[in-house]
Amino acid sequence: MKLITAIIKPYKLDEVREALSDVGVTGLTITDVKGFGRQKGHTELYRGSEYVVDFLPKTKIEIAVSDENSEAVIEAISKVSNTGKIGDGKIFVSNLDQVMRIRTGELNEDAL
Question: Residue 64: which H helix or E strand, with range?
Fold first, then answer.
């Protein structure tokens, strides 16, 4: 099993959700986050004063999937999220040792 964590631009969330649904993802977790990478933030003007915005708003998506579905999920996220511009985001893939559905006590693949 894999835990796929994707950091994307917030306005791409609906498109990513639809693409994930098309490849069979039945559940995911979304978190609004802030951060920066190569994009490095930007300057804004407020009431005549310039200030630097270091941390840019991003959306973090976490999905637990079986090993067989991981490549399809990664491809769906990267295809829809790609604008070709800096700041498109990143996808992280981690191994999951164990998953448990609290309500039923199901473990691993059955819990997904």
Answer: strand 56-65
pLDDT at 41: 61
Residue span of the structural domain in which 85 resides: 2-111
61-84: buried (b, 16+ CB within 10 Å) or exposed (e) per residue?
Answer: bebbbeeebbebbbebbbebbeee
Number of compact structural domains in the chain: 1
Read off the pTM. Answer: 0.83
112, 66 contact by CB (below 8 A): yes
Helix axes 67-81, 13-22, angle to 10 degrees: 140
pLDDT digit string, tens, across residues 20-58: 999 999 899 999 998 877 766 666 666 777 667 677 889
CA gap 53, 33 in Å, rounded: 14
Where residue 33 sits, what CATH number does that domain have? Answer: 3.30.70.120
Give the tokens for residue 7: 């950091």
> What pLDDT sits at residue 25?
93
